[in-house]
Amino acid sequence: MNGSSNGKDFWKEVWHYFEIISSTPYDQVFVKTGDGFLDNEWFRGAAFNLAENIMRIRDSRIGLICCDEFGNRETITYNEIYEQTKLYAAAFRKHGLKVGDRVAYYISNIKESLFAMLATISIGAIWGGPFTLSWTQNSIKYYEGSRSKIYHFSGSFSQACGAALSNRKFVSYSKSILLDDFLQSGMTADGVVPDLIFEQLPFNHPTIINFTSGTTGTQRGWFTQLE
């Protein structure tokens, strides 16, 4: 869908149909910023947060069903997703994460990955990592150039990647922390989790670094922007 008159009208209707939450409304639906195919700006002037829109439902309905290779099944409500994301965001902020920083992950498709991703996006930081089933050395190449402030590993992935990272200069294990301790660090002295703050950002603010499969060589990444 391009920036023609019909295209603008279509995406304007999409915005209003889904009742996008924004602290500042957009001035223009579409603006051409250059001659290139990607030189575009959508919803100029709008300030919003993707995580806030994803988590707009915060009740007791089931929002997530988790199943693993061992046959375990768990259901998580929308409210639980919000509360867990709040816990992760508080810990991230405690450790200095801010708008524009990067969080690198090497984590399987488990509930913790969703909580961490939503927390990262709520702060305005960028969530990214290699395809988790790719071979370890291929993944290491990503971390060497990612310039990430926080590295998030889990389970067997942390064991495999930890061994390979042990001799790398860009990781300081003196600053490593277990997940439970990390999450607790975001609480106040009274055990209260600070409120979740959704940083209001331009519509084209980068949120996620996605990667190719790496089947033909080193994985290549690109930013996911809401454009």
UniProtKB/TrEMBL annotation:
Gene3D superfamilies: N-terminal domain of ligase-like. Residues 71-221 form the AMP-dependent synthetase/ligase domain. GO terms for molecular function: acetoacetate-CoA ligase activity. InterPro entries: AMP-dep_synth/lig_dom (IPR000873), ANL_N_sf (IPR042099). It comes from the Eukaryota. PANTHER family: ACETOACETYL-COA SYNTHETASE. This is Acetoacetyl-CoA synthetase.
